[in-house]
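Fold this sequence, please.
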Amino acid sequence: MPQVKLTTSLGAIVIDLDAERAPATVANFLAYVESGHYDGTVFHRVVPGFMNQGGGFTADMRQKPVREPVRNEADNGLKNTRFAVAMARTSVPHSATSQFFINTADNPALDHSAPTATGYGYAVFGVVGEGRDVVDSIAAVRTGRAGGHGHVPLVPVVIERAALLD
């Protein structure tokens, strides 16, 4: 099982990736990791009791360029439970690119229920294996508005480096 270490300004998080149940999503995530895309990005949306979202913006809230979207694999049986890692997307089911989120609560409303626009869900592709205390620390930061976005940490929580572990 591949693992990715996110070294953040609040500590390290190790994500155990499920390449068997979410092969396209894991391949997409690893391509962003290996290209250095996540280095210097921030957790730009932190909603207590819900999730911590990152992977798309720099600390000054500039969106980074992305690859083509990946097919939504939310129908893989994995659930949006606390510490599960899933792909963020727009209201279009197959629109995920680089942004991901870490569930900080059980979020069954985000799970796949039907192959429709409203039922497709958000593809879980891994789980936080180490650094759950760091995830909770991120969830506890003060947030406000920045760059036209809400729930932005007032002090940036930076992903300093994302790396595939051996």
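Residues 23-35 form the longest helix (13 residues). The domain at 3-164 is CATH 2.40.100.10 (Cyclophilin).
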